[in-house]
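Input sequence (731 aa), recorded before submission:
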Amino acid sequence: MNTETHRQPASDIWSVCNLLRGPYKRNEYRKVILPLTVLRRFDCLLSPTKAKALETFNLFKGKPESIIRSMMQSATGYPFYNLSKLELRASGEGIHSLLDDSSNLAPNLNSYINSYSPNIRAIFERFKFGEQIERMSEKNLLFKVLQKFATFDLSFAGLSADQAAMQMGYVFEELIRIGAEQSNEEAGEHFTPREVIKLMVDLLLSPEQDLRRSHVVKTIYDPACGTGGMLSVAEKYIRDLNSEAKPHLYGQDWNDEAWAVCCSDMLIKGEDADNIARGDTFTKDGHARDEQGQKRSFDYMLANPPFGVEWKQQQRYIEHEHDTLGYQGRFGAGTPRINDGALLFLQHMIDKMRPTEQGGSRIGIVFNGSPLFTGDAGGGESEIRRWIIENDWLEAVVALPEQLFYNTGISTYIWVLTNRKEPHRKGKVQLIDARNHWVPMEKSLGNKRRRVGDPSDKPKDPDYVGDISALHGQFQEGASRWVLFDKDGKVVTVAKTAPTDDAPAGQQWKQLVVSKVFDNEDFGYHKITVERPLRLNFHATPARLARLEDETAFKNLASSLKKDEAARLVDITTGEKRQQQIRDLLTEFAKRHPEQINDRKVFLDSLKPVDRELDVRLSAPELKAVVSALSERDEKAEICRNRDGLAEPDAELRDTENVPLKESIQAYFEREVKPHVEDAWIDHSKTKIGYEIPLNRHFYRYEAPRELAVIESELKALEADIVRLLAEVTA
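Predicted structure, token format:
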């Protein structure tokens, strides 16, 4: 496809923004441009059948809504219609142009929009376009803007219906892109950079052989579809590969404007906009069941869910589903931290995979770094990763360059999952380091300062999208690339093969491993709890006796929660007497045992006869407070043991170790722990299994520090520059 064929019309349409300058800010232009483009497109499509449609409506007026809808769609040839005698440009007898009555333009335009079929009206309601009509009317812009839009022929006469629909789709997507880029920070909420989408689609679909089958039907789903960019690119990929293929697109999004844009794009391209559900994916699954009432599943799924967004508002729904349905629901594997719901989207998508015997599914999703490693063994994110990896669904993780997205500069990763791995990938996970595969943006857009090179979009770009896809397809352990760095360590270019020429002055070529293949078990570990025995000495010194006053159980003796003042005072008085009894007991004990005791059993056996003699009779909480006050940890003391004679663990000395799944726990313990702490042991009842994907660690490259002489030389040069600049200022 020649990109200019859609970029030029998009540029012409966007030029209308020149009329909006002043009353509108740059990031608000899309609120006018996108709805009016949709309106003009539908206006052009319905114009040839306008008279026939009105005649049809008059024939069936008063009939049930379903009959009217069916007959009107038959008359127009589209899943929408308009019952107004108005158009932007009059197309025939009895049809009038909106521009003919400039004094009533705003109410007429609202009436014209309200004359559309319910599916179109719903879109414009979510666009909140009525607000823009009022705003433009107040600023005397409405007539000029509509007049300009009336000049655009968006019927694409000369092309077949399918070609025209696709061409208009490309125009609309280009407008979405321009509008998103001009929104900068706001864009990242529902817009993914096109080169990232293309890479995801390549990773997802390039291994698929059956896409070339005649009239193959495939379903594609995005649970956080935004404006529908991922769905559109996936559809284009399939149609470019096989013009006879029939991709069916499905999506859901909670953002009204994004949903309206996505539905518009679907209708413009002749797709079923009813497949784009509106609402929160977590609280109400818009695609839970198909038309036959069966659980809905999809061939391919893609998503770029929000990064680091909490799910507190949906917590009640999610935890209820988790608790009641378990693995029969969407969130059986567990829930992540409340401040990042990204893995909930992935679980939702996994729930919608086709059974393997029905062809299975493939999933591509963009994450930040958190889902790779956050969460402790035995819960949260770790259990979700364990569920995914032990089921052998994770195919690959691709580390992307930083600063790719409009609203964040953080590291991002593409996960590829499937329940029908190729034989040579079974039990394996591929990690790809594509962090150097970037070219600088000509102009920064928010936090987006880099893009993955894509010559189909920018002809001068290196084909980094293709190279990353090739690395994935080759599935090679230890595959490398040559990276050229400048003197500041920034990437200049990436080459597939060793360079034949020396690096330019001040630059350096480095060969870096960019692909590694691991067994599933390589990401798992046993988290073991290492205990050491509790060792205490006891001494009834004045300092330790004073500590008793701070023990909670001792302090609570002289307190009361009773509301009645008289009763409360009685409790306090009684408690104070009890406190004094205990003090007297310990004073007497100190007289009889002035020495330090290094064995808890000996201490208790020595305290017991004094307690009986004075008839204090310490309760369990009181005795615990006494033990706590008079004891100190002492490595030379005897081990404290329970009634069964087993060593009691010291909570303060407790430690944990992560032992790789492939390694014997006992062998690891004997090698790494025992030589340092001979009296340690493993509490096997606390052992848990965890999973993490430490991608950065696997691709870590040691860089030797620079020579001190070089650093000193640079510092001296900087000092000289500072002195020179100061001299210029003070001269």
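Checked by second reader. The mean pLDDT is 91.
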